[in-house]
Amino acid sequence: MALCAALSFCAATAQAGQKSRAKKKTPAAQEKKAEAEPVSEVTRLRAQLVQATKDYKTSLEQLLTHYEKNVKRAEEKLVKTRELYTEGLVARRALDEDEQALKLARADVSKVEGQLKSADVQIAETLVEAEAEEVAAKTLAQSKKAARASGGLLTTTAYIRYGGTRAWSLNEAGAVMQFFTRSFGRQLPVSSFGQSPVHDRWGYDHHNAMDVGLSPDSADGRALMEYLRSSGVPFTAFRFAIPGTATGPHIHIGRPSHKVAPR
């Protein structure tokens, strides 16, 4: 009987311990779940952006094909017009008009080719910004508000944010470009200036901001950030890249882009 009582007591004690441990694990499990939520949201966002990227680049490629056909037609027409002009059958004005038409057609092609080249850069930068904002949204919400309100500096492993001490607009971009050219003897590597089709597609307001393809950990990146801080200009400098994208680290000059309805 004593042995049975002892065994019963041990079993009850073990069962109570298991319940106690289960209760102790509950907050940790909840905390782990809370930590996982932003990551899953980022994964969802990345999937949406990747699809939007494919759609955007596909539309550009289709437009490029159309413009290239226009160039071919304009070239063929110009060849015929030159022959007629040489034979004295058409006036110089007709030749000038066809030459101008070809010039405009080629300009359309060049514009779309430029958009295709810059699309990967803009996409990567926007994805970096979206991911950093999403991951840091819960853990740094209060700190970011304080930094914006005080014009202070917020530094994390992902980015550096300076809230600024005054309003800034793209009209002042020239001063930033001049500073960089004077300091480094080359043009400021601007990858996005104001709103772009990429930002429209993804639903981000980038009207009053520009992105610069500089790492905040490089010498020129640090010099630019110091200039912006001394001028009271808000900026966010992103330190990391997204795997599989063309670029990532960059300095976003202006207030952080916020989500709006995609177009």
Question: Could you explain how this protein is built, in words?
Answer:
The protein starts with a helix and ends with a strand. The chain contains six helices and eight strands. With 263 residues, the chain is of the alpha+beta class. The protein has a six-stranded antiparallel β-sheet with strand order 1-2-6-7-5-3, sandwiched between helices. The protein is 65% helix and 10% strand. The longest helix has 85 residues. Helix 1 runs antiparallel to helix 2 and helix 4 packs across helix 6. Strand 1 and strand 2 form a beta hairpin. It has two domains: 94 residues, Helix Hairpins, CATH 1.10.287; 119 residues, no CATH class.
Secondary-structure element pattern, one letter each: HHHEEHEHEEHEEE
Q: Helix/strand-derived class? A: alpha+beta
Strand content: 5-15%
Low-confidence stretches: 1-39, 146-150
Query: What best-fitting shape do the alpha-carbon axes yield?
Result: elongated
Provide the descriptors you would attach to this structure in a database record:
263 residues; 8 strands; alpha+beta; 6 helices; Helix Hairpins; single chain; disordered N terminus; six-stranded antiparallel sheet
What is shown here, in short?
The chain has 263 residues and is α+β, with helices and mostly antiparallel strands. It is built from six helices and eight strands, in the order H-H-H-E-E-H-E-H-E-E-H-E-E-E.
